[in-house]
Task: structure prediction
Amino acid sequence: MTEITAANILVVDDEDSFRLQMSDHLRKLGYRVDSAESCRSAKERLLDSSYALVLVDLHMEDFDGKVRADAGVDLVKYIHSNYPDVPVIIITSKPAYDTFRLKGKLGVVDYLDKSPAELADLGGKIAKNIRRNLALKIETPLGQSELNDDDREILQKLFLDSTTVRVHEFIQGARGVRLYRVDSRDADGIWIVPLIVKIGWRDAIMEELARFERYVKHRIPSSRYPEIVSTAFARRHAGIAYTFVGGFDFSGTVTLRDYYRRHSTAEVQRVFERIFPELFRIWHESKGGKQPINLFEEYEGVLFDQGKLESAVSTYLKGLCGGEIVRFPELGREFPNPILRWRSLKKSYDVRTYLSTIHGDLNGGNVLVDEGGNLWLIDFERTCRSHIVKDHAELEVAVKYDLLEGASIQELAELEKELVFAPSLTAPIRLRGASENIQKALRVVRTIRSQAEVALAPSADPKEYFIALLYYTLNCLRFSNRDISTDKKKVLLYATNMILERLENQ
Result:
């Protein structure tokens, strides 16, 4: 028995005796087998387990519970849409021309009639079409978290021609996203070009694939993003294999977050000066003329759910935001509750401004920098067409509350005060006596703002930028204390109140 016969097969047929016969036959060949008698029961199986191949009868109950001669075609379409890397073999007791025409379409790799001769040949047909490398040896560095079953299955599907892969954890992102750098060895024992593998929830990966095709591929220079090599699916998860960016030395390519923390202010500023002119140039050049838009409505979606925001604030800042006044002894200040103030804000600002393709999730983990200072964008799940400075505002908030380390609550509050009340986006700001970390953040933020001003030119109305900043500042309040400390959340509340004050007075 070869390694491949450890695969899990799903048999879908409404005839009990044949389904039992088929399952027994496949188990004798060494496969693990599940079975289902209808489209609905097969869907439930697919949600609960992962399969290397599905055998589908055509005559059965469809998704609505009606028996139809071609109901299996609906199931084939469902599998192809939701599990596109799972091959299908069609079973039918009455082969017809229409059945044969499905081969090569919708993931159908072969067909099988119910004759004894066909049953005898089934093992060969399955082994030939399974797209999973169960013999793959998967290695992880000592001390790195163990891969879960879905991660392992996805790697087995992505690296079909490899004998060994070494998996280095690159990023643990939000919402269960994992990013790995994977080295692979072929059958000749040669280590080949590494790939980046991103694994996340299946729906999110499918969304990223669609947006990559629509907004990224052929629309920004290919030297500025990794190419998608292949995709794979495992139950509710999926993975994308990207071409690796930078040199082959893994330590030479890092996230923008790591680059910021490891390099000098001058080096970091030079990198930030190039982010938008290089990575976003084509997107911004195709912005067209100004479009009418209510900016508050445009940014409401940043919060996803207002109720979750208010629940998070009451949880993480318990006792601080219940009344109309917020008091922070550490800051030596009290101010109106910004959550109540924001809730009652008249959320209307109709303006003609620029819309552009935006990254949609621009932070310290979604820009990569190599040892030569070359830049790449990754993670396009939220890429879309929106307000042209949306990415700038999100990146500013990421600098202050993610990349910046070692600043006291008082220093961060003073930085926010100067930034919020600056008369223009590029107005000079001097913080006398500020620490090196604060000065670094200030210079980087001013670099981001100068590029936002260019994007909004010629009018460059600061109010547009501060509406964006308001929503990304509010959004940070939703994050758990593990991601953003309670002290930083206090400054976020303080900053939110000041931004609201500025907007109300403009």
The longest helix spans residues 436-456. The two ends are 75 Å apart (CA to CA). The domain at 250-505 is CATH 3.90.1200 (Aminoglycoside 3'-phosphotransferase; Chain: A, domain 2). The CA atoms of residues 132 and 157 lie 5 Å apart.
